[in-house]
Amino acid sequence: MRELVMEYINVLPNADFIIDLLELVLENSLMELHGEYFQQIFGIIIGTNVAPILANLYLAKLEDSERKNEKQSSNDMSGTIQTLHR
């Protein structure tokens, strides 16, 4: 999570504070079901206010990674095509 936020530090000037708040929410997520309380230990509870923010950060990172892979694949293929045309 820290890596995700730090990549956008130019957009998020208070990234360290945001990370601290997100960690607080993620580490202390409790839910109630049929009168019993449970702590979420993996992921985030559906309906939590920060869930869409985390989803957007994750998807932005995934999209960026895919674009880099696509660009690398494109560069690799263009070298192959040039070699075939010689």
Q: Can you tell me about this structure?
A:
The chain has one domain. It contains three helices and two strands. It has helices at about 1-5, 15-25, 50-85, and strands at about 30-35, 35-40. A hairpin with a 2-residue loop joins β1 and β2. It starts with a helix and ends with a helix. The mean pLDDT is about 80.
Summarize the structure.
This protein is mainly α.
Which labels suit this protein?
about 90 residues, mainly alpha, two-stranded antiparallel ribbon, 3 helices, about 10% strand
Which range best describes the helical content: under 10%, 10-25%, 25-40%, 40-55%, 55-70% or over 70%?
Answer: 55-70%
Query: In angstroms, what separates the terminal alpha carbons?
Result: 47 Å
Poorly predicted regions are: none
- Continuous helix count: 3
Strand content: 5-15%
Instruction: Encode the helix/strand succession as letters.
Output: HHEEH
Q: Describe the main β-sheet briefly.
A: 2 strands, antiparallel
Order of strands in the sheet with most strands? 1-2
